[in-house]
Amino acid sequence: MSDTLHTLTDTPVNCNLEIAKNNILVPGRILNKLRLGAFQRNTRFGNCHRRVHTKYLGMTSETNKPFTLSKSSTIEDFEAANKASTDQLKVSKPEILEISGKGQSPHTLWIGCSDSRVNECTVLGCVPGEIFTVRNIGNVVTTGDLACISAIQFAIESLKVKRVVVCGHTDCGGMWGALSSNKANGPLDNWLLPVRNVRLEHLDELDAITDGPQKNAKLSELNVLHSVEVVRRHPSFVKAHRESGVEVYGLLYDVKTGYLKQVSSAGEAARKIEEVFDLGGK
Ligand SMILES: [Zn+2]
Which listed residue, 38, 76, 131, 180, has the most CB atoms within 10 A of its CB? Predict the structure, then answer.
């Protein structure tokens, strides 16, 4: 059975759909009323041969369960998934889209990894309008990355976020790359150079860890701390920290447990940065 345009049934469907208060009962399936729009979009009432994209109806196909879309999804699948998701948001948080339409005032800048398992809104349960985001492979922050340092400036100076979060995670592909002696033979090698340098700085500590996933997690922590230090040197952060108490935090997300933990730099290292970059006063 395909995991894409999954066929609810290609055999004649009983046209007598039993509509309950909140659910629509289709032979063998129950559709939540909130998802009816997507259902209607992908079925042809009056024609008993109906093909239904089941995934974004919350009834993911057997082969791609429990995901919403798949590698074979079409752009129409994306449109339908968007409609179903938005319709759900309108019910659960009916004021959000009206607020979004008037502008944004996020409270947090999130700098995270591009990894598909570590979406900031999913991790925190936040809704649109709360978090300004930069994501790249390995949540790397360097002064040479215009995209990231510009985002930091914009988030702090224009959006007036109150905190910056740098979030790494366990089982990070960027960390695996930096721990490997194999080259990616492309720009990825250059991109991961800062992470490889972090590994070099802490080589003895990392080499003492024999368990691969634990070593990955440790490098991820160290890399988060390195990125936090770069944020702390950013001119916009230095000024905002001194004047209005904007803070930066390092976090590590465990992809197995789903929980975050705080990653703190050694006191001496933080003290030196504060001394050199005048971060002590407000
Ligand atoms: Zn990652």
Answer: 38
The answer to whether residues 165 and 107 touch, using CB atoms and an 8 Å cutoff, is no
Dist. CA 259 → ligand 1 center (Å): 15
pLDDT tens across the length of the chain (282 residues): 333 322 222 223 332 333 333 333 333 333 343 343 343 333 333 333 333 444 445 444 446 889 999 999 999 999 999 999 999 999 999 999 999 999 999 999 999 999 999 999 999 999 999 999 999 999 999 999 999 999 999 999 999 999 999 999 999 999 999 999 998 999 999 999 999 999 999 999 999 999 999 999 999 999 999 999 999 999 999 999 999 999 999 999 999 999 999 998 766 666 676 677 766 554
The verdict on 124 and 210 lying in the same domain is yes
Q: What six digits make up the tokens of 194?
A: 């800062």
User: 171 CA to middle of ligand 1, Å?
Assistant: 7
Spacing, Cα 192 to ligand 1 middle (Å): 11
Ligand 1 centroid to residue 40 C-alpha, Å: 38
Clarify whether residues 37 and 150 are in a common domain: no
Cα 130 to middle of ligand 1, angstroms: 22
**One domain for residues 62 and 125:** no
Beta bridge partners of 100: none
Domains contained in the chain, number: 2
Q: Kindly give the pairing relationship between strand 29-32 and strand 163-169.
A: unpaired
Distance of CA 242 from the midpoint of ligand 1 (Å): 31
Q: Is the dihedral of CA 265, 181, 146, 165 positive or negative?
A: negative
Residue 49 tokens read as 């041969």
Task: Look at residue 5 and tell me if it is in a domain.
Answer: no
